[in-house]
Design goal:
The structure is a single chain. The chain is an alpha/beta fold. The chain folds into two domains: 2-202, Rossmann fold (3-Layer(aba) Sandwich); 211-282, no CATH class. Helices cover 31% and strands 29% of the residues. The protein has helices at 41-49, 71-74, 91-98, 107-117, 130-143, 160-173, 211-217, 257-265, 269-276, 279-282, and strands at residues 2-12, 15-25, 29-34, 56-61, 64-65, 77-80, 148-152, 179-184, 196-201, 204-210, 218-223, 233-237, 240-246. The strands form three sheets. It has a six-stranded mixed β-sheet with strand order 6-7-8-3-9-10, sandwiched between helices. A four-stranded antiparallel β-sheet has the order 2-1-4-5, with helices on one face. Strand 4 (56-61) and strand 5 (64-65) form a beta hairpin. Helix 4 packs antiparallel against helix 5. Bound molecules: adenosine-5'-triphosphate.
């Protein structure tokens, strides 16, 4: 679905953001794109969607270079940016003006999502709160039923019940032929939603794995003091020593995305090496 090959990008030549970054994303998945502040998540998403252009290398969607901004690609792609700007029209009018650019737009679904998010269909967009505006655009993006849906920090500005609604709605919306990418630094917001994790760090994608594959390799649990020496990584938290250990018994545990993210971005190679090993190397 998305193929990024040797992407090099910088805003200023003095500060390289990506150098030969490679990434391949498949349909049927909800990817969580994680990275520290300033890692370049938004910039990467802009390169994928053709809103920023690679200095070298390419970003392709279904084989077509996204920097060409071909109508056939744009009508099958929806991007909810981090900062949103809405026109001073009613939601109904917005749909009338905009939905025609998306041939698979489903107005029944749109109204259903709005209802679940408790956003009034007759509301004037600029008079809605920031969170309501965001929920209206997320609903619109989901109802476009595009093959690729990208949301940059969608949960920013959503209250706690809305975050739960967001997870439920997005999880129910994914079709087999669709790919959804959600960037965030609020890792917990993606719990029970994403099925694959991408970590952007130091200008590269250092991790691109399904949660199932991760839990086959490593386990996440509270450790006894004496187990700490054998752990691949651990943190001293209020719950005790929360750690990552090699999964030796084949039982899968829930992936603690925050702990995983902290371990791989802290320069701990043990966890990363174990997760990234091929099946043959692992046996
Ligand atoms: N339009 C721009 N012009 C120049 N530099 C930019 C521009 N947009 C972003 N940057 C810089 O590029 C780097 C990556 O920014 P980006 O917004 O892509 O990171 P991010 O991972 O999305 O961060 P955050 O989690 O804080 O939203 C930052 O150092 C930022 O200052």
């Amino acid at each position: 679905m998305v193929e990024i090959a040797d992407l090099t990008f910088f805003y200023s030549k003095k500060k390289m953001l990506f150098e030969k970054l490679n990434l391949s994303l498949k349909p049927g998945h909800i990817y969580g794109l994680l990275g520290k502040n300033g890692a370049g998540k938004s910039t990467l998403l802009k390169n994928i969607t053709g809103l920023a252009f690679p200095k070298e290398g390419s970003c392709r969607i279904k084989g077509v270079d996204s920097s060409k901004r071909m109508p056939s690609v744009l009508e099958d792609l929806y991007f909810v940016p981090e900062e949103i700007y809405v026109p001073a029209v009613s939601i109904k009018q917005y749909v009338k003006d905009t939905a025609l650019f998306y041939p698979k737009f489903d107005s029944w679904l749109f109204e259903k999502y709005l209802e679940e998010f408790e956003v009034p269909l007759n509301g004037i967009l600029t008079k809605l709160s920031f969170g309501q505006q965001k929920k209206a655009l997320i609903s619109f993006g989901l109802a476009c039923c595009t093959s690729l849906l990208i949301m940059d920090e969608p949960t920013n500005g959503l209250d706690i019940p809305s975050k739960a609604q967001f997870r439920k709605i997005v999880a129910s919306a994914l079709g087999e032929e669709q790919c959804i990418i959600i960037s965030t630094h609020q890792v917990r917001d993606l719990d029970n939603l994403i099925d694959a994790i991408l970590v952007l760090h130091n200008g590269r994608i250092i991790l691109n794995k399904n949660l199932d594959e991760i839990s086959e390799r490593v386990s996440f649990r509270v450790l006894r003091e004496e187990e700490a020496v054998e752990a691949l990584y651990y943190e001293n938290t209020v719950k005790g020593l929360e750690g990552i250990v090699q999964n030796k018994n084949g039982w899968s545990s829930r992936v603690d995305m925050e702990l995983l993210f902290n371990s791989v971005t802290a320069g701990n190679h043990d966890v990363l090496t174990l997760i990234n090993k091929s099946d043959e190397q692992f046996i």
